[in-house]
Design a protein that fits this description.
Blueprint: H1 3-15, H2 18-25, H3 29-43, E1 48-50, E2 55-57, H4 59-86, E3 91-97, H5 102-116, E4 120-126, H6 129-137, E5 143-146, E6 155-169, H7 183-186, E7 192-193, H8 198-206, E8 218-219, H9 222-230, E9 236-239, H10 243-248, E10 252-255, E11 261-269, H11 275-288, H12 292-297
Parallel strand pairs: 3-4, 3-5, 7-8
Antiparallel strand pairs: 1-2, 5-11, 6-9, 6-10, 6-11
Helix pairs in contact: 1-2, 1-4, 2-3, 5-11
Length: 301
């Protein structure tokens, strides 16, 4: 049994069809079928139930799949590290992003990153802060873009850009006529994200609250939150990068009279082998977002 056999196993389990799996692997169908028969003989078990129209993994195969993925991920990591040693600006870079940043930041940085680092293959992974830090600690990510600093000595971090918050209001809200809104005025009917999102805590802190109002909606995503505001359910704070989406929903956006906002940072493992690529990534993101805070405050985002 070798890594090639494990790739064949995963491909057939995914496609449930020898022909489609063979096409995805770039080999002939007879070759794939023969190699999997050999793997079954080597292991002494049946991995797939075969029919003319479909191939179905057996219970044994399903139990083996996580181990096969782990082995292949480890092998890919070895290859990626070796490639990074030969050329630190080539190979894949697994980048985590929090959900309140990913859909708004990625379109801004993908182009500059491709132009400046054509040999680098960026693999984004979206999740909440603690989940990203856990994956970073387990070497499942190379770096993560967060809106909080890290507390662990195992990580290093670097500021990328400052992102102001904007008051998001229904267009007919009593505060929509104001040129700027105080955080205290938003507090009575502020809507926040569910637990686990750093934006929840930051929004509540900006408005001087320890928790959201009793019974208030706690949305699982920023788009849901903005849609509820558009429906007149309440008010919220949105990060300035999401301003375009908020305006498309018809929300009235106003700058805050206070200093509400967040510092977006890049975090990575101390001593990471991808340090050179991570540093260049940080340089490019910082350059792309230079002057962003001032533009956001002026309503130019």
């Amino acid at each position: 049994m070798n890594l090639r056999d494990l790739r064949y196993l995963l491909a057939v389990a995914e496609h449930r069809h020898f022909g489609r799996a063979a096409t995805a692997l770039g080999i002939s169908q007879p070759t794939l079928s023969i190699q999997l028969r050999k793997l079954e003989e080597t292991l002494g078990v049946t991995l797939f139930e075969r029919s003319p129209r479909q191939v179905t993994p057996t219970a044994t195969a399903l139990a083996l799949l996580p181990h096969a993925r782990t082995a292949l991920d480890a092998a890919d990591a070895v290859a990626a590290l070796a490639e990074a040693e030969r050329d630190p600006l080539r190979g894949r870079l697994r980048l985590g992003l929090i959900p309140t940043l990913a859909p708004y930041l990625l379109p801004l940085i993908f182009g500059p990153l491709r132009a400046a680092l054509p040999g680098l293959s960026l693999e984004p992974w979206e999740d909440v802060t603690q989940a990203l830090l856990d994956r970073l600690a387990r070497h499942e990510l190379d770096a993560a873009i967060l809106a909080t600093d890290t507390d662990s000595a195992a990580f290093m971090s670097r500021p990328l850009f400052s992102e102001p918050f904007l008051a998001a209001l229904p267009p007919d809200h009593r505060l929509a006529a104001e040129s700027a809104v105080s955080e205290a005025d938003l507090a009575p009917d502020i809507l926040v994200l569910a637990d686990g999102h750093c934006l929840r805590d930051q929004a509540l802190a900006a408005c001087g609250q320890a928790d959201a109002r009793s019974g208030a909606l706690r949305a699982a995503s920023l788009p849901t939150l903005m849609n509820m505001v558009a429906a007149g359910y309440g008010t919220t704070l949105v990060p300035a990068l999401a301003a375009g989406t908020a305006r498309e929903l018809g929300l009235a956006l106003r700058p805050l009279t206070g200093t509400g906002g967040r510092m977006v940072r890049l975090a990575w493992r101390r001593g990471s082998a991808r340090g050179v690529a991570i540093s260049r990534l940080a340089d490019i993101v910082t350059a792309r977002l230079a002057g962003f805070a001032a533009g956001a405050a002026a309503g130019q985002v």
